[in-house]
Design brief:
Layout (H helix, E strand, L loop, with lengths): L1 H13 L7 H8 L5 H4 L2 H15 L17 H6 L13 H4 L1 H7 L1 H39 L5 H27 L7 H11 L3 H13 L9 H19 L4 H16 L1 H22 L7 H16 L4 H22 L4 H12 L10
Length: 355
Amino acid sequence: MGGEEQKQKRVTAASYDYENDPRWADYWSNILIPPNMASRSDVLDHFKRKFYQRYIDPDLVVEPMSLGGSSQPTRQTSSSSSTSMPASEPARPRTSGTSSRTSGSGTSTTAGAAPNATAMRWDRQTIIFSVNAWVFVLALLAIFPLIPSNLSKRAYRLSLIGTACTSMYSLYSLYGKPRAWNLQAVQMWFQSIIATKDFIYFIYSLMFVTSHLCLKFALIPVLCRSLEHVAKFLRRNFSRSTLYRKYLEELCVWVESNVTTLSILSSHAEVGLGFLLVLSLFSWQRSVIQTFMYWQLLKLMYHAPATAGYHQSVWSKIGRSVYPAIHQYAPFLNTPISILQRWWSSGVIEVFWLS
Protein backbone atom coordinates (compact mmCIF):
# COMPACT_ATOMS: atom_id res chain seq x y z
CA MET A 1 0.00 0.00 0.00
CA GLY A 2 2.87 2.31 0.79
CA GLY A 3 4.38 1.63 -2.61
CA GLU A 4 1.12 2.54 -4.36
CA GLU A 5 0.88 5.71 -2.30
CA GLN A 6 4.42 6.75 -3.22
CA LYS A 7 3.75 5.96 -6.86
CA GLN A 8 0.73 8.27 -6.80
CA LYS A 9 2.78 10.97 -5.07
CA ARG A 10 5.43 10.73 -7.79
CA VAL A 11 2.77 11.10 -10.47
CA THR A 12 1.39 14.16 -8.69
CA ALA A 13 4.88 15.63 -8.34
CA ALA A 14 5.58 15.09 -12.04
CA SER A 15 2.38 16.91 -13.03
CA TYR A 16 3.02 19.89 -10.75
CA ASP A 17 3.29 23.27 -12.54
CA TYR A 18 6.88 24.15 -11.65
CA GLU A 19 7.29 26.91 -14.21
CA ASN A 20 4.63 29.12 -12.59
CA ASP A 21 6.05 28.67 -9.10
CA PRO A 22 8.69 31.38 -8.46
CA ARG A 23 10.25 29.23 -5.75
CA TRP A 24 11.22 26.62 -8.34
CA ALA A 25 13.18 29.14 -10.44
CA ASP A 26 14.99 30.33 -7.33
CA TYR A 27 15.66 26.73 -6.21
CA TRP A 28 16.96 25.59 -9.63
CA SER A 29 19.18 28.65 -10.05
CA ASN A 30 21.01 27.72 -6.84
CA ILE A 31 21.70 24.10 -7.82
CA LEU A 32 25.40 23.75 -8.64
CA ILE A 33 25.85 20.96 -11.21
CA PRO A 34 27.89 20.70 -14.42
CA PRO A 35 26.14 22.01 -17.59
CA ASN A 36 26.16 18.59 -19.26
CA MET A 37 24.18 17.14 -16.33
CA ALA A 38 21.85 20.13 -16.02
CA SER A 39 20.57 19.49 -19.55
CA ARG A 40 19.58 15.87 -18.80
CA SER A 41 15.90 15.20 -18.20
CA ASP A 42 16.52 12.62 -15.47
CA VAL A 43 18.60 15.11 -13.48
CA LEU A 44 15.95 17.81 -13.89
CA ASP A 45 13.19 15.40 -12.81
CA HIS A 46 15.23 14.35 -9.76
CA PHE A 47 15.62 17.93 -8.53
CA LYS A 48 11.97 18.66 -9.27
CA ARG A 49 11.02 15.80 -6.96
CA LYS A 50 13.39 17.15 -4.29
CA PHE A 51 11.81 20.60 -4.65
CA TYR A 52 8.34 19.05 -4.39
CA GLN A 53 9.41 17.17 -1.28
CA ARG A 54 10.78 20.32 0.39
CA TYR A 55 8.00 22.79 -0.42
CA ILE A 56 4.86 20.77 -1.26
CA ASP A 57 4.81 17.24 0.16
CA PRO A 58 7.43 16.26 2.77
CA ASP A 59 6.14 12.67 2.73
CA LEU A 60 7.34 12.11 -0.85
CA VAL A 61 10.29 9.70 -0.86
CA VAL A 62 13.04 10.81 -3.27
CA GLU A 63 15.51 8.10 -4.11
CA PRO A 64 19.18 9.11 -4.52
CA MET A 65 20.31 9.64 -8.08
CA SER A 66 23.30 7.68 -9.31
CA LEU A 67 26.17 9.59 -10.91
CA GLY A 68 26.12 7.43 -14.01
CA GLY A 69 22.49 8.18 -14.78
CA SER A 70 21.06 4.72 -14.03
CA SER A 71 17.68 6.32 -13.31
CA GLN A 72 16.94 5.93 -17.02
CA PRO A 73 17.04 2.21 -17.73
CA THR A 74 16.19 2.58 -21.42
CA ARG A 75 19.24 4.69 -22.05
CA GLN A 76 21.44 2.25 -20.14
CA THR A 77 20.35 -0.82 -22.06
CA SER A 78 20.60 0.90 -25.41
CA SER A 79 24.15 1.99 -24.69
CA SER A 80 25.38 -1.21 -23.00
CA SER A 81 26.88 -2.53 -26.24
CA SER A 82 28.87 0.64 -26.94
CA THR A 83 32.05 1.71 -25.20
CA SER A 84 31.60 5.31 -26.38
CA MET A 85 29.01 6.00 -23.65
CA PRO A 86 30.95 6.12 -20.36
CA ALA A 87 27.94 7.23 -18.33
CA SER A 88 26.62 3.68 -18.03
CA GLU A 89 29.97 2.00 -17.40
CA PRO A 90 30.19 2.26 -13.58
CA ALA A 91 27.16 -0.02 -13.14
CA ARG A 92 28.71 -2.91 -15.13
CA PRO A 93 31.30 -4.33 -12.69
CA ARG A 94 28.58 -4.90 -10.09
CA THR A 95 26.43 -7.03 -12.42
CA SER A 96 28.92 -9.05 -14.41
CA GLY A 97 32.55 -9.96 -14.17
CA THR A 98 32.87 -10.63 -17.91
CA SER A 99 31.66 -7.20 -18.88
CA SER A 100 34.48 -5.58 -16.92
CA ARG A 101 36.98 -7.72 -18.82
CA THR A 102 35.48 -7.03 -22.24
CA SER A 103 35.27 -3.30 -21.70
CA GLY A 104 39.00 -3.18 -21.08
CA SER A 105 40.52 0.21 -20.48
CA GLY A 106 37.23 2.01 -20.87
CA THR A 107 36.07 0.78 -17.47
CA SER A 108 39.21 1.86 -15.69
CA THR A 109 39.05 5.30 -17.27
CA THR A 110 35.48 5.77 -16.13
CA ALA A 111 36.21 4.51 -12.65
CA GLY A 112 38.90 7.14 -12.30
CA ALA A 113 36.77 9.88 -13.82
CA ALA A 114 33.87 9.52 -11.40
CA PRO A 115 35.76 10.49 -8.21
CA ASN A 116 37.39 13.38 -10.05
CA ALA A 117 34.00 14.72 -11.08
CA THR A 118 32.75 14.45 -7.51
CA ALA A 119 35.86 16.17 -6.16
CA MET A 120 35.54 18.97 -8.70
CA ARG A 121 31.94 19.57 -7.70
CA TRP A 122 32.94 19.57 -4.03
CA ASP A 123 35.66 22.11 -4.75
CA ARG A 124 33.19 24.42 -6.46
CA GLN A 125 30.79 24.26 -3.55
CA THR A 126 33.59 24.84 -1.05
CA ILE A 127 34.93 27.85 -2.93
CA ILE A 128 31.49 29.43 -3.22
CA PHE A 129 30.78 28.72 0.46
CA SER A 130 34.11 30.23 1.57
CA VAL A 131 33.61 33.45 -0.39
CA ASN A 132 29.99 33.77 0.72
CA ALA A 133 31.01 33.34 4.36
CA TRP A 134 33.65 36.02 3.81
CA VAL A 135 31.02 38.29 2.19
CA PHE A 136 28.61 37.74 5.08
CA VAL A 137 31.20 38.72 7.72
CA LEU A 138 32.30 41.79 5.74
CA ALA A 139 28.71 42.92 5.16
CA LEU A 140 28.03 42.67 8.90
CA LEU A 141 31.14 44.74 9.60
CA ALA A 142 30.04 47.34 7.05
CA ILE A 143 26.62 47.89 8.62
CA PHE A 144 27.73 47.67 12.26
CA PRO A 145 27.43 51.21 13.66
CA LEU A 146 30.54 51.17 15.91
CA ILE A 147 33.00 50.29 13.13
CA PRO A 148 35.27 53.20 11.99
CA SER A 149 34.12 54.90 8.80
CA ASN A 150 37.13 54.00 6.63
CA LEU A 151 37.00 50.33 7.69
CA SER A 152 33.24 50.24 7.16
CA LYS A 153 33.53 51.61 3.61
CA ARG A 154 36.28 49.13 2.76
CA ALA A 155 34.20 46.22 4.09
CA TYR A 156 31.23 47.55 2.09
CA ARG A 157 33.15 47.47 -1.19
CA LEU A 158 34.88 44.14 -0.47
CA SER A 159 31.54 42.47 0.27
CA LEU A 160 30.16 43.68 -3.07
CA ILE A 161 33.32 42.51 -4.87
CA GLY A 162 32.96 39.09 -3.22
CA THR A 163 29.33 38.84 -4.35
CA ALA A 164 30.32 39.75 -7.92
CA CYS A 165 33.09 37.11 -7.88
CA THR A 166 30.86 34.30 -6.59
CA SER A 167 28.13 35.19 -9.08
CA MET A 168 30.57 35.21 -11.99
CA TYR A 169 32.19 31.96 -10.85
CA SER A 170 28.80 30.28 -10.55
CA LEU A 171 27.82 31.49 -14.03
CA TYR A 172 31.03 30.12 -15.48
CA SER A 173 30.59 26.80 -13.67
CA LEU A 174 27.03 26.34 -14.93
CA TYR A 175 27.12 27.90 -18.40
CA GLY A 176 30.81 27.95 -19.33
CA LYS A 177 31.86 30.44 -21.98
CA PRO A 178 30.52 31.14 -25.49
CA ARG A 179 31.17 28.37 -27.98
CA ALA A 180 32.81 30.85 -30.33
CA TRP A 181 33.83 34.49 -30.06
CA ASN A 182 31.49 35.84 -32.70
CA LEU A 183 28.35 37.93 -32.35
CA GLN A 184 25.86 35.11 -32.79
CA ALA A 185 27.53 32.74 -30.31
CA VAL A 186 28.01 35.47 -27.71
CA GLN A 187 24.40 36.57 -28.14
CA MET A 188 23.09 33.02 -27.63
CA TRP A 189 25.28 32.56 -24.55
CA PHE A 190 24.18 35.92 -23.16
CA GLN A 191 20.50 35.11 -23.68
CA SER A 192 20.97 31.90 -21.68
CA ILE A 193 22.36 33.72 -18.60
CA ILE A 194 20.58 37.10 -18.64
CA ALA A 195 17.56 35.95 -16.63
CA THR A 196 19.52 33.98 -14.00
CA LYS A 197 19.85 35.15 -10.42
CA ASP A 198 23.65 34.97 -10.55
CA PHE A 199 23.81 37.35 -13.51
CA ILE A 200 21.41 39.78 -11.81
CA TYR A 201 23.53 39.90 -8.65
CA PHE A 202 26.71 40.21 -10.67
CA ILE A 203 25.39 43.37 -12.36
CA TYR A 204 23.89 44.57 -9.06
CA SER A 205 27.23 44.31 -7.25
CA LEU A 206 29.16 45.98 -10.07
CA MET A 207 26.78 48.94 -10.08
CA PHE A 208 27.36 49.75 -6.42
CA VAL A 209 31.02 48.82 -6.11
CA THR A 210 31.92 51.20 -8.97
CA SER A 211 29.77 54.04 -7.61
CA HIS A 212 31.03 56.85 -5.39
CA LEU A 213 27.81 56.49 -3.37
CA CYS A 214 28.08 54.29 -0.28
CA LEU A 215 24.54 53.05 0.34
CA LYS A 216 24.66 50.55 3.20
CA PHE A 217 21.03 49.75 2.36
CA ALA A 218 22.37 47.95 -0.74
CA LEU A 219 23.93 45.28 1.50
CA ILE A 220 20.56 43.84 2.58
CA PRO A 221 20.17 41.65 -0.56
CA VAL A 222 23.86 40.71 -0.33
CA LEU A 223 23.45 39.62 3.30
CA CYS A 224 20.33 37.59 2.52
CA ARG A 225 21.97 35.87 -0.44
CA SER A 226 25.21 35.00 1.37
CA LEU A 227 23.35 33.84 4.48
CA GLU A 228 21.20 31.49 2.40
CA HIS A 229 24.22 29.95 0.63
CA VAL A 230 26.21 29.54 3.87
CA ALA A 231 23.28 27.96 5.74
CA LYS A 232 22.58 25.46 2.94
CA PHE A 233 26.23 24.41 2.71
CA LEU A 234 26.61 23.99 6.47
CA ARG A 235 23.45 21.94 6.78
CA ARG A 236 24.39 19.65 3.90
CA ASN A 237 28.02 19.05 4.86
CA PHE A 238 28.30 19.56 8.65
CA SER A 239 25.00 18.17 9.94
CA ARG A 240 26.88 15.55 12.02
CA SER A 241 29.33 18.00 13.54
CA THR A 242 28.98 18.64 17.28
CA LEU A 243 29.78 22.35 16.91
CA TYR A 244 27.20 22.69 14.16
CA ARG A 245 24.48 20.98 16.19
CA LYS A 246 25.26 23.06 19.26
CA TYR A 247 25.60 26.54 17.77
CA LEU A 248 24.44 26.68 14.15
CA GLU A 249 21.73 24.09 13.57
CA GLU A 250 18.78 26.23 14.69
CA LEU A 251 19.92 29.21 12.62
CA CYS A 252 20.52 27.11 9.49
CA VAL A 253 17.16 25.36 9.83
CA TRP A 254 15.44 28.72 10.24
CA VAL A 255 17.18 30.13 7.16
CA GLU A 256 16.29 27.13 4.98
CA SER A 257 12.65 27.26 6.11
CA ASN A 258 12.43 31.03 5.52
CA VAL A 259 14.05 31.36 2.10
CA THR A 260 10.87 32.98 0.78
CA THR A 261 10.95 35.54 3.61
CA LEU A 262 14.56 36.44 2.78
CA SER A 263 13.68 36.79 -0.91
CA ILE A 264 10.76 39.10 -0.07
CA LEU A 265 13.05 41.21 2.14
CA SER A 266 15.63 41.41 -0.65
CA SER A 267 13.04 42.46 -3.24
CA HIS A 268 11.72 45.23 -0.97
CA ALA A 269 15.27 46.49 -0.42
CA GLU A 270 16.05 46.39 -4.16
CA VAL A 271 12.95 48.39 -5.07
CA GLY A 272 13.61 50.81 -2.22
CA LEU A 273 17.13 51.37 -3.55
CA GLY A 274 15.65 52.50 -6.85
CA PHE A 275 13.75 55.29 -5.11
CA LEU A 276 16.81 56.19 -2.99
CA LEU A 277 18.84 56.65 -6.18
CA VAL A 278 16.12 58.91 -7.60
CA LEU A 279 16.28 61.03 -4.43
CA SER A 280 20.08 61.13 -4.70
CA LEU A 281 19.69 62.98 -8.02
CA PHE A 282 18.86 66.07 -5.96
CA SER A 283 22.15 65.89 -4.03
CA TRP A 284 25.75 66.65 -4.99
CA GLN A 285 26.47 62.89 -5.08
CA ARG A 286 23.99 62.28 -7.88
CA SER A 287 24.76 59.84 -10.66
CA VAL A 288 22.29 59.95 -13.54
CA ILE A 289 23.88 57.00 -15.38
CA GLN A 290 23.85 54.74 -12.31
CA THR A 291 20.22 55.63 -11.56
CA PHE A 292 19.17 54.93 -15.14
CA MET A 293 21.05 51.60 -15.28
CA TYR A 294 19.71 50.49 -11.91
CA TRP A 295 16.13 51.07 -13.00
CA GLN A 296 16.89 48.99 -16.08
CA LEU A 297 18.11 46.26 -13.72
CA LEU A 298 14.91 46.60 -11.68
CA LYS A 299 12.99 46.06 -14.89
CA LEU A 300 14.99 42.90 -15.52
CA MET A 301 14.27 41.71 -11.97
CA TYR A 302 10.57 42.32 -12.58
CA HIS A 303 10.60 39.96 -15.60
CA ALA A 304 13.29 37.36 -14.73
CA PRO A 305 11.76 34.07 -13.51
CA ALA A 306 14.07 33.87 -10.48
CA THR A 307 12.92 37.23 -9.07
CA ALA A 308 9.69 38.08 -10.92
CA GLY A 309 7.25 36.73 -8.32
CA TYR A 310 8.73 38.75 -5.46
CA HIS A 311 9.20 42.00 -7.40
CA GLN A 312 5.75 41.87 -8.94
CA SER A 313 4.31 41.47 -5.44
CA VAL A 314 6.19 44.56 -4.23
CA TRP A 315 5.06 46.68 -7.17
CA SER A 316 1.47 45.51 -6.69
CA LYS A 317 1.56 46.76 -3.10
CA ILE A 318 2.98 50.10 -4.25
CA GLY A 319 0.29 50.39 -6.91
CA ARG A 320 -2.51 49.70 -4.45
CA SER A 321 -1.16 52.42 -2.15
CA VAL A 322 -0.28 55.10 -4.71
CA TYR A 323 -2.83 54.85 -7.54
CA PRO A 324 -5.91 55.91 -5.51
CA ALA A 325 -4.13 59.07 -4.31
CA ILE A 326 -2.98 59.91 -7.85
CA HIS A 327 -6.46 59.44 -9.31
CA GLN A 328 -7.94 61.66 -6.61
CA TYR A 329 -5.37 64.43 -6.22
CA ALA A 330 -3.18 64.40 -9.37
CA PRO A 331 -5.16 62.99 -12.32
CA PHE A 332 -2.82 64.77 -14.75
CA LEU A 333 -0.19 62.12 -13.92
CA ASN A 334 -2.30 59.30 -15.37
CA THR A 335 -0.91 59.77 -18.90
CA PRO A 336 2.82 59.73 -18.02
CA ILE A 337 2.24 56.82 -15.61
CA SER A 338 0.52 54.79 -18.34
CA ILE A 339 3.50 55.46 -20.66
CA LEU A 340 5.90 54.29 -17.96
CA GLN A 341 3.79 51.17 -17.39
CA ARG A 342 3.95 50.25 -21.08
CA TRP A 343 7.74 50.64 -21.04
CA TRP A 344 7.98 48.64 -17.81
CA SER A 345 5.88 45.80 -19.20
CA SER A 346 7.85 45.54 -22.45
CA GLY A 347 10.60 42.97 -23.02
CA VAL A 348 13.88 43.19 -21.14
CA ILE A 349 16.35 41.67 -23.62
CA GLU A 350 16.92 45.02 -25.28
CA VAL A 351 17.84 46.46 -21.90
CA PHE A 352 21.25 44.81 -22.28
CA TRP A 353 21.84 45.62 -25.93
CA LEU A 354 20.23 42.53 -27.53
CA SER A 355 17.41 42.79 -30.04
